[in-house]
Amino acid sequence: MPYRHTVGPRTHVFADLATLMAKATPVRSGDCLAGIAAESAEENMAARWCLAEVPLKEILARPLIPYEADDVTRLILDDHDEAAFAEIASLTVGDFREFLLTASSETLARIAPGVTPEIAAAVSKIMRNQDLILVARKCRVVTRFRNTIGLPGTLAVRLQPNHPTDDPAGVTASILDGLSYGCGDAVIGINPVSDSIQTMGTLLTLFDSIIERLEIPTQACVLTHVTTTLDAMNRGLPVDLVFQSIAGTQRANASFGVTLPILQEAHEAALALKRGTLGDNVMYFETGQGSALSADAHHGIDQQTLEARAYAVARRYRPLLVNTVVGFIGPEYLYDGKEIIRAGLEDHFCGKLMGVPLGVDVCYTNHAEADQDDMDTLLTLLGAAGCTYVMGIPGADDVMLNYQSTSFHDQLYIREVLGLRRAPEFEEWLARIGLTDASGTLLPGGAESRLLTAAPDLAA
To answer: Which residues are recorded as binding substrate (predicted)?
Structure first.
């Protein structure tokens, strides 16, 4: 059924819901590349007005990808919580925006299981940046493994010690450097150069040794393919979290070499290890706008809606961590700083609204029309929005993946400006070994030596 909206003398017609949502999306290069973006600012605004009048029940009743053709669609509809949805079932998209702006944190937590990704994406398209920040800040998503992530007033950091050759000495140096700045409460997580089980075994054993010797209340992850992690668990290697990149369609996930049954198998295997001390959130997922389009698996749907569908996949497996790598894919999908900033706020909002513990890799590639000032702006906005975690990378420059992100220093800035704390167990550890005072402020001088005093064999 087509949708229509009249602006002055002109009536804009949108063939179906997927077209309407694509045309209502704030401009971004990926949708232009796919040929589905609005052709003018007038058409974009007409689509937003039209989308605001669509009932949420109608979005639920009209899957953008047919149920029988896509397992992500089946997951979304089969997992939908009708009781949670009942509270908002009578609303239109526009009504839902007004509802969200005044809803309490308790209300948002209650309705989260009833919010489908298409509903979250639809309402985000008619919201200003300040709306996305305001609502996301009220969404509380708390997860636990060896510490507690996502509490109000906190911001965690993934310590990312990537190395161009996976050299254990270089990786260890980056870990100690990051810990000395108070990073690592989200996870110590590395993108390895090699996907071999031998490399994974070396890195997992290294991470486990550092965490054990320093008695750090955190978790480690080698960000390799889920099947390699399954092999590692079968071999008895010390796996804390299972990682996988995921997307919003069955075909896009297939391009990553992953299926929902494989994720289920890995989830069950990680739970069986019982390595968490405070909780059993054992999965870690990464996403990013444009992945389905780059795999020619987008079904004519806009990239932001497909990104939200990836959060439905993540939600199924109760992850400890999820993050969008917002500017990593390149300017073909998010052209400049303005598009990256908007996408980061959208992703964070949609994930949190759906009950997903969403962090953001605040990043860009060197061929995008963006710079570190844009990333400072996005980091600040996400801090205000209650982002779960960000990345900590030496010098903000990933020498293995060749992209720009946030540094160990950047999290100190956002903590001071917004008063954000670390995961409480991690913060207590930092104070106990003398890296910070009781308020979480780094103490001057000698941080690395205090770490090595706590575990002198790491200096070898």
So the answer is: 158-160, 191, 286, 361
